[in-house]
Every structure is written in structure tokens, then in C-alpha cells.
Specification:
Blueprint (H helix, E strand, L loop, with lengths): L2 H9 L14 E4 L5 H9 L3 E4 L7 H7 L5 E4 L7 H6 L5 E4 L9 H6 L3 E4 L5 H8 L2
Parallel strand pairs: 1-2, 1-3, 3-4, 4-5
């Protein structure tokens, strides 16, 4: 649970909501990401399922995507119109990398899903490879 949620809960008397249940956002990481990246989600109170091989299995992705609020991908996962249609709770797709060519932007936009990427995430590595 994040700091913000704890502060809000501290303000609410226990007798007001005796059975208050806080549902934290749930994110699927379907491609390989660093442990640090996964921990950033967890530190912010987000429930993360790290399934790095799932992006290559379109059938399985279709069967589970409806359980998630967010999808974090690299290049292996294809967020097609079919995947987006099955993602009834999805609010955001984050692409760890420059392009978003593996995400059906028109389908995501029509479904009200925000698509974002990290275009500068590889800048240092690229510079290191360019150095003699």
C-alpha cells in the first residue's frame, strides 16, 4: 500500500468503514524487465505479476489480460485489437522502450486506454555503445 493510501486511511474512523477493502491496481509485466523496474511498481503499492514469457503466448495473454489495470511490455508482447478488447479493466499500457509499433494505438484509444513509452530509457546504453 502506498504512502498516500495509508494517509487517507488514517483519516477515516474505523467505525465508519468497518469492512473497508482497498483494491490496489494490478499490473501485468509480460516481457522481461529488470528486477529494479518491477520493484518500482511494488514500492508504489501496485500489485505486480511478473510473467516475462507471457508476451509470446497470445492465447494465454488473451485469457488473463482482463484481470489487470495495467500492462507493461517491451517488444515481444503484441497488444493487438483482440488483446485490448479482452482487457476490460485495462487503463494503461506502458512500453519500456522507444516505439509503440507493437501496440494497436487506435484500438487502445477507442477503449480509453492510455499508451505511453520510455523513449529516453536507453540513451546512456546507446551512448556507451557509440563510444570507441
Amino acid at each position: 500500500m502506498g504512502v498516500f493510501h495509508r494517509k487517507i486511511l488514517a483519516l477515516i474512523p474505523k467505525t465508519f468503514f468497518p469492512r473497508l477493502v482497498i483494491i490496489m491496481p494490478k499490473v501485468l509485466v509480460s516481457d522481461a524487465l529488470s528486477e529494479t523496474a518491477v520493484n518500482i511498481f511494488k514500492e508504489r503499492g501496485i500489485d505486480v505479476d511478473y510473467e516475462p514469457g507471457l508476451g509470446k503466448d497470445a492465447k494465454k495473454l488473451l485469457s488473463v489480460i482482463g484481470n489487470y489495470d495495467g500492462l507493461a511490455v517491451r517488444s515481444a508482447t503484441k497488444a493487438t485489437a483482440a488483446v485490448i478488447a479482452a482487457a476490460k479493466n485495462l487503463k494503461v499500457i506502458g512500453r519500456a522502450g522507444i516505439g509503440v509499433d507493437n501496440i494497436d494505438i487506435p484500438a487502445a484509444t477507442a477503449a480509453g486506454i492510455v499508451v505511453m513509452n520510455t523513449p529516453f530509457g536507453n540513451a546512456i546504453t546507446t551512448a556507451e555503445h557509440a563510444m570507441p
